[in-house]
Amino acid sequence: MHKVIFDTDPGVDDAMALLFLHRHPAIELVGITTVFGNASIETTTRNALFLKGAWNIAAPVAKGIGETLDAGRPHVGWPTGIHGDDGLGNIDVPAQIDLPLDPRPAHRFIIDTVRANPGQVTLIAVGRMTNLARALRDDPEIATLVKAVVIMGGAFDVPGNITPAAEANIHGDPEAADVVMTAPWPVTVIGLDVTTKTVMSRAMLSDIAERGGAPARLLSDISQFYIDFYEHHVDDGMIVHDSCACAYVVAPELFQTRSGAIRVLCGGIADGQTIQKPDARLFPPNAWDGFPSQQACIGIDAEAVLKLIGDTLADGN
Ligand code: BDR
Ligand code: CA
Protein backbone atom coordinates (compact mmCIF):
# COMPACT_ATOMS: atom_id res chain seq x y z
CA MET A 1 0.00 0.00 0.00
CA HIS A 2 1.14 3.52 -0.79
CA LYS A 3 0.16 6.16 1.76
CA VAL A 4 -0.50 9.25 -0.35
CA ILE A 5 -1.06 12.94 0.30
CA PHE A 6 -2.59 14.43 -2.83
CA ASP A 7 -1.69 18.10 -3.32
CA THR A 8 -4.08 19.42 -5.94
CA ASP A 9 -5.88 22.37 -7.58
CA PRO A 10 -9.17 20.81 -8.77
CA GLY A 11 -9.37 21.31 -11.69
CA VAL A 12 -10.87 18.83 -14.16
CA ASP A 13 -7.87 16.53 -14.69
CA ASP A 14 -7.21 16.82 -10.94
CA ALA A 15 -10.71 15.42 -10.34
CA MET A 16 -9.92 12.40 -12.49
CA ALA A 17 -6.66 11.85 -10.60
CA LEU A 18 -8.50 12.05 -7.29
CA LEU A 19 -11.00 9.38 -8.33
CA PHE A 20 -8.09 7.23 -9.54
CA LEU A 21 -6.39 7.49 -6.12
CA HIS A 22 -9.67 6.83 -4.31
CA ARG A 23 -10.42 3.73 -6.36
CA HIS A 24 -6.97 2.18 -6.74
CA PRO A 25 -6.58 -0.77 -4.36
CA ALA A 26 -2.86 -0.12 -3.70
CA ILE A 27 -3.40 3.50 -2.63
CA GLU A 28 -4.29 4.67 0.86
CA LEU A 29 -5.27 8.33 0.49
CA VAL A 30 -4.33 9.94 3.82
CA GLY A 31 -4.96 13.57 2.92
CA ILE A 32 -5.94 16.05 0.24
CA THR A 33 -4.18 19.41 0.34
CA THR A 34 -5.31 22.24 -1.88
CA VAL A 35 -3.37 24.80 -3.82
CA PHE A 36 -4.48 27.61 -6.13
CA GLY A 37 -3.82 27.36 -9.87
CA ASN A 38 -6.73 26.13 -11.96
CA ALA A 39 -8.84 28.49 -9.83
CA SER A 40 -8.50 30.53 -6.63
CA ILE A 41 -7.70 28.77 -3.37
CA GLU A 42 -11.32 29.27 -2.23
CA THR A 43 -12.61 27.58 -5.38
CA THR A 44 -10.13 24.69 -5.49
CA THR A 45 -10.75 23.98 -1.80
CA ARG A 46 -14.53 24.11 -2.26
CA ASN A 47 -14.09 21.73 -5.20
CA ALA A 48 -11.98 19.30 -3.17
CA LEU A 49 -14.70 19.23 -0.50
CA PHE A 50 -17.38 18.77 -3.17
CA LEU A 51 -15.55 15.76 -4.65
CA LYS A 52 -14.83 14.32 -1.22
CA GLY A 53 -18.56 14.43 -0.46
CA ALA A 54 -19.73 13.21 -3.87
CA TRP A 55 -17.31 10.28 -3.90
CA ASN A 56 -17.44 9.50 -0.19
CA ILE A 57 -13.71 9.95 0.31
CA ALA A 58 -12.61 9.60 3.93
CA ALA A 59 -9.35 11.58 3.70
CA PRO A 60 -9.39 15.07 5.25
CA VAL A 61 -9.01 18.20 3.13
CA ALA A 62 -6.51 20.88 4.27
CA LYS A 63 -6.57 24.28 2.59
CA GLY A 64 -3.41 25.88 1.23
CA ILE A 65 -2.40 29.51 1.54
CA GLY A 66 -3.52 31.40 -1.55
CA GLU A 67 -0.30 33.08 -2.58
CA THR A 68 2.98 32.15 -4.19
CA LEU A 69 6.06 31.43 -2.09
CA ASP A 70 7.51 34.76 -3.15
CA ALA A 71 4.51 36.95 -2.29
CA GLY A 72 5.70 39.65 -4.70
CA ARG A 73 4.88 37.62 -7.82
CA PRO A 74 2.16 39.22 -9.95
CA HIS A 75 -1.08 37.22 -10.26
CA VAL A 76 -1.60 35.86 -13.78
CA GLY A 77 -5.35 34.98 -13.73
CA TRP A 78 -7.24 31.68 -13.66
CA PRO A 79 -7.60 29.37 -16.69
CA THR A 80 -11.42 29.50 -16.77
CA GLY A 81 -11.42 28.68 -20.49
CA ILE A 82 -9.96 25.22 -19.70
CA HIS A 83 -11.48 24.29 -16.33
CA GLY A 84 -14.61 26.49 -16.33
CA ASP A 85 -15.61 29.35 -14.03
CA ASP A 86 -16.21 26.87 -11.21
CA GLY A 87 -12.94 24.98 -11.86
CA LEU A 88 -14.93 21.78 -12.54
CA GLY A 89 -16.22 22.26 -16.06
CA ASN A 90 -19.18 24.54 -15.20
CA ILE A 91 -21.34 21.81 -13.70
CA ASP A 92 -22.79 24.25 -11.14
CA VAL A 93 -20.89 23.14 -8.07
CA PRO A 94 -22.79 24.41 -4.99
CA ALA A 95 -21.27 27.61 -3.59
CA GLN A 96 -20.89 26.10 -0.11
CA ILE A 97 -20.12 22.51 0.84
CA ASP A 98 -21.24 21.44 4.28
CA LEU A 99 -18.14 19.45 5.23
CA PRO A 100 -15.42 20.44 7.69
CA LEU A 101 -11.90 21.36 6.65
CA ASP A 102 -8.86 20.14 8.54
CA PRO A 103 -8.00 23.04 10.88
CA ARG A 104 -4.35 23.17 9.75
CA PRO A 105 -3.02 24.94 6.69
CA ALA A 106 -1.96 22.49 3.95
CA HIS A 107 1.79 22.77 4.54
CA ARG A 108 1.36 22.09 8.28
CA PHE A 109 -0.89 19.09 7.51
CA ILE A 110 1.88 17.75 5.26
CA ILE A 111 4.56 18.22 7.94
CA ASP A 112 2.48 16.58 10.68
CA THR A 113 1.42 13.64 8.53
CA VAL A 114 4.95 12.97 7.28
CA ARG A 115 6.32 13.17 10.82
CA ALA A 116 3.62 10.79 12.09
CA ASN A 117 4.49 8.25 9.34
CA PRO A 118 8.26 8.47 8.83
CA GLY A 119 9.48 6.92 5.58
CA GLN A 120 5.96 6.01 4.48
CA VAL A 121 4.28 8.99 2.83
CA THR A 122 4.33 9.65 -0.92
CA LEU A 123 3.50 13.22 -1.89
CA ILE A 124 1.75 13.51 -5.24
CA ALA A 125 1.65 17.18 -6.25
CA VAL A 126 -0.32 18.12 -9.36
CA GLY A 127 -0.70 21.88 -8.95
CA ARG A 128 1.74 24.61 -8.09
CA MET A 129 4.53 23.51 -5.76
CA THR A 130 3.66 26.16 -3.16
CA ASN A 131 2.52 23.88 -0.31
CA LEU A 132 5.46 21.51 -0.65
CA ALA A 133 7.94 24.39 -0.64
CA ARG A 134 6.28 25.96 2.41
CA ALA A 135 6.45 22.62 4.22
CA LEU A 136 10.17 22.32 3.43
CA ARG A 137 10.81 25.89 4.49
CA ASP A 138 9.11 25.40 7.86
CA ASP A 139 10.56 21.94 8.52
CA PRO A 140 13.48 21.06 6.20
CA GLU A 141 13.95 17.70 7.93
CA ILE A 142 10.79 16.30 6.35
CA ALA A 143 12.86 15.84 3.17
CA THR A 144 14.51 12.87 4.88
CA LEU A 145 11.20 11.49 6.17
CA VAL A 146 9.14 11.42 2.96
CA LYS A 147 9.13 8.18 0.97
CA ALA A 148 8.81 9.80 -2.45
CA VAL A 149 7.64 12.95 -4.21
CA VAL A 150 5.91 12.63 -7.58
CA ILE A 151 4.88 15.79 -9.35
CA MET A 152 2.97 16.65 -12.49
CA GLY A 153 4.74 19.63 -13.95
CA GLY A 154 7.49 20.86 -16.19
CA ALA A 155 8.61 20.27 -19.75
CA PHE A 156 12.12 19.05 -20.50
CA ASP A 157 12.57 18.10 -24.15
CA VAL A 158 9.28 19.62 -25.41
CA PRO A 159 7.77 23.15 -25.37
CA GLY A 160 5.75 24.40 -22.41
CA ASN A 161 2.00 24.92 -22.44
CA ILE A 162 1.69 28.36 -20.87
CA THR A 163 4.72 29.87 -22.59
CA PRO A 164 7.05 28.23 -25.11
CA ALA A 165 9.38 27.60 -22.15
CA ALA A 166 7.15 26.73 -19.20
CA GLU A 167 4.43 24.35 -18.07
CA ALA A 168 1.57 25.87 -16.04
CA ASN A 169 2.12 24.24 -12.63
CA ILE A 170 5.77 25.30 -12.56
CA HIS A 171 5.17 28.70 -14.15
CA GLY A 172 2.59 29.48 -11.44
CA ASP A 173 5.21 29.41 -8.69
CA PRO A 174 8.75 28.91 -10.06
CA GLU A 175 10.52 29.77 -6.80
CA ALA A 176 8.53 27.07 -5.01
CA ALA A 177 9.26 24.54 -7.75
CA ASP A 178 13.00 25.22 -7.55
CA VAL A 179 12.91 24.62 -3.77
CA VAL A 180 11.10 21.30 -4.34
CA MET A 181 13.43 20.10 -7.14
CA THR A 182 16.64 20.93 -5.24
CA ALA A 183 15.65 19.48 -1.84
CA PRO A 184 17.28 16.25 -0.66
CA TRP A 185 14.21 14.07 -1.21
CA PRO A 186 13.54 11.76 -4.15
CA VAL A 187 11.50 13.61 -6.78
CA THR A 188 10.07 12.16 -9.99
CA VAL A 189 8.79 14.75 -12.42
CA ILE A 190 6.00 13.72 -14.76
CA GLY A 191 5.89 16.57 -17.26
CA LEU A 192 4.51 17.47 -20.65
CA ASP A 193 7.09 15.20 -22.32
CA VAL A 194 4.84 12.30 -21.39
CA THR A 195 1.46 13.65 -20.29
CA THR A 196 0.70 15.12 -23.72
CA LYS A 197 1.00 11.60 -25.15
CA THR A 198 -1.70 10.35 -22.81
CA VAL A 199 -5.00 11.35 -24.42
CA MET A 200 -8.20 9.71 -23.23
CA SER A 201 -10.72 9.63 -26.05
CA ARG A 202 -14.36 10.66 -25.63
CA ALA A 203 -15.31 7.05 -26.37
CA MET A 204 -13.08 5.73 -23.60
CA LEU A 205 -14.46 8.23 -21.09
CA SER A 206 -18.03 7.35 -21.95
CA ASP A 207 -17.23 3.65 -21.56
CA ILE A 208 -15.77 4.43 -18.10
CA ALA A 209 -18.92 6.41 -17.26
CA GLU A 210 -21.07 3.41 -18.21
CA ARG A 211 -19.01 0.90 -16.25
CA GLY A 212 -18.06 3.02 -13.24
CA GLY A 213 -21.41 4.00 -11.70
CA ALA A 214 -22.41 7.44 -10.40
CA PRO A 215 -18.86 8.59 -9.46
CA ALA A 216 -17.62 7.94 -12.98
CA ARG A 217 -20.68 9.62 -14.49
CA LEU A 218 -19.97 12.74 -12.44
CA LEU A 219 -16.36 12.64 -13.64
CA SER A 220 -17.56 12.42 -17.22
CA ASP A 221 -19.89 15.41 -16.74
CA ILE A 222 -17.06 17.44 -15.20
CA SER A 223 -14.73 16.58 -18.09
CA GLN A 224 -16.86 17.65 -21.09
CA PHE A 225 -15.93 21.36 -20.96
CA TYR A 226 -12.20 20.48 -20.76
CA ILE A 227 -12.52 18.07 -23.69
CA ASP A 228 -14.17 20.80 -25.76
CA PHE A 229 -11.22 23.09 -24.97
CA TYR A 230 -8.69 20.44 -25.96
CA GLU A 231 -10.40 19.87 -29.30
CA HIS A 232 -8.08 22.57 -30.70
CA HIS A 233 -4.99 20.74 -29.42
CA VAL A 234 -5.67 17.00 -29.62
CA ASP A 235 -7.81 14.91 -31.94
CA ASP A 236 -10.64 13.73 -29.75
CA GLY A 237 -10.36 13.60 -26.00
CA MET A 238 -8.55 14.92 -22.96
CA ILE A 239 -4.95 14.98 -21.87
CA VAL A 240 -4.93 13.28 -18.49
CA HIS A 241 -1.95 15.19 -17.05
CA ASP A 242 -2.53 14.66 -13.35
CA SER A 243 -3.60 11.02 -13.52
CA CYS A 244 -0.23 10.20 -15.12
CA ALA A 245 1.55 11.19 -11.89
CA CYS A 246 -0.78 8.90 -9.91
CA ALA A 247 -0.30 6.04 -12.36
CA TYR A 248 3.47 6.38 -11.94
CA VAL A 249 3.18 5.62 -8.22
CA VAL A 250 1.49 2.25 -8.79
CA ALA A 251 3.12 1.32 -12.12
CA PRO A 252 6.56 2.97 -12.50
CA GLU A 253 7.54 0.28 -15.02
CA LEU A 254 5.30 1.99 -17.57
CA PHE A 255 7.54 5.09 -17.52
CA GLN A 256 11.10 5.81 -18.59
CA THR A 257 13.08 8.29 -16.52
CA ARG A 258 16.35 10.21 -16.80
CA SER A 259 18.44 11.03 -13.75
CA GLY A 260 20.03 14.41 -13.04
CA ALA A 261 19.76 17.61 -11.01
CA ILE A 262 16.80 19.80 -12.00
CA ARG A 263 16.62 23.60 -11.67
CA VAL A 264 13.77 25.98 -12.40
CA LEU A 265 14.38 29.34 -14.03
CA CYS A 266 12.93 32.16 -11.95
CA GLY A 267 12.35 35.37 -13.91
CA GLY A 268 13.09 36.44 -17.46
CA ILE A 269 11.39 35.32 -20.65
CA ALA A 270 11.83 31.64 -19.76
CA ASP A 271 10.31 32.09 -16.27
CA GLY A 272 9.28 28.67 -14.97
CA GLN A 273 11.34 26.59 -17.40
CA THR A 274 12.57 23.26 -16.00
CA ILE A 275 16.09 22.25 -17.00
CA GLN A 276 17.82 19.02 -16.08
CA LYS A 277 21.56 18.36 -16.09
CA PRO A 278 21.65 14.67 -17.03
CA ASP A 279 24.01 12.70 -14.78
CA ALA A 280 25.65 11.21 -17.84
CA ARG A 281 26.86 14.63 -19.13
CA LEU A 282 29.92 16.51 -17.88
CA PHE A 283 29.98 20.33 -17.76
CA PRO A 284 32.24 23.00 -16.27
CA PRO A 285 31.06 24.29 -12.84
CA ASN A 286 27.42 25.42 -13.03
CA ALA A 287 24.24 26.17 -11.07
CA TRP A 288 23.16 22.49 -11.03
CA ASP A 289 26.27 21.33 -9.14
CA GLY A 290 25.76 20.08 -5.61
CA PHE A 291 22.04 19.43 -5.96
CA PRO A 292 20.54 15.94 -5.77
CA SER A 293 19.80 13.94 -8.89
CA GLN A 294 16.06 13.76 -9.54
CA GLN A 295 14.14 11.74 -12.11
CA ALA A 296 12.65 13.45 -15.16
CA CYS A 297 10.18 11.31 -17.03
CA ILE A 298 11.01 11.16 -20.73
CA GLY A 299 9.10 8.11 -21.94
CA ILE A 300 5.73 6.47 -21.32
CA ASP A 301 3.77 3.44 -22.47
CA ALA A 302 0.74 5.68 -23.04
CA GLU A 303 -1.61 2.89 -24.07
CA ALA A 304 -0.89 0.86 -20.94
CA VAL A 305 -1.16 3.93 -18.70
CA LEU A 306 -4.53 4.85 -20.22
CA LYS A 307 -5.77 1.31 -19.69
CA LEU A 308 -4.64 1.36 -16.07
CA ILE A 309 -6.37 4.71 -15.52
CA GLY A 310 -9.54 3.62 -17.31
CA ASP A 311 -9.83 0.29 -15.50
CA THR A 312 -9.20 1.92 -12.12
CA LEU A 313 -11.77 4.66 -12.71
CA ALA A 314 -14.33 2.14 -13.94
CA ASP A 315 -14.05 -0.55 -11.32
CA GLY A 316 -11.20 0.05 -8.93
CA ASN A 317 -9.01 -2.78 -10.29
C1 BDR B 1 -1.35 21.13 -15.33
O1 BDR B 1 -1.94 22.43 -15.23
C2 BDR B 1 -3.26 22.32 -14.77
O2 BDR B 1 -4.11 23.03 -15.60
C3 BDR B 1 -3.64 20.87 -14.85
O3 BDR B 1 -4.52 20.51 -13.81
C4 BDR B 1 -2.33 20.15 -14.74
O4 BDR B 1 -1.99 19.90 -13.40
C5 BDR B 1 -1.01 20.88 -16.80
O5 BDR B 1 -0.08 21.82 -17.25
CA1 CA C 1 -3.65 20.14 -11.59
UniProtKB/TrEMBL annotation:
Annotated GO molecular function terms are: purine nucleosidase activity
The UniProt entry's GO biological process terms, in alphabetical order, are: purine nucleoside catabolic process
Look up the EC number in the record and give it. 3.2.2.-
Pfam families recorded: IU_nuc_hydro
What is this enzyme's class at the first EC digit? hydrolase
Family matches, as CDD domains: nuc_hydro_CaPnhB
Query: What keywords would UniProt list here?
Result: Glycosidase, Hydrolase
| Descriptive protein name | Inosine-uridine preferring nucleoside hydrolase family protein
State the species of origin: Rhizobium meliloti (strain 1021)
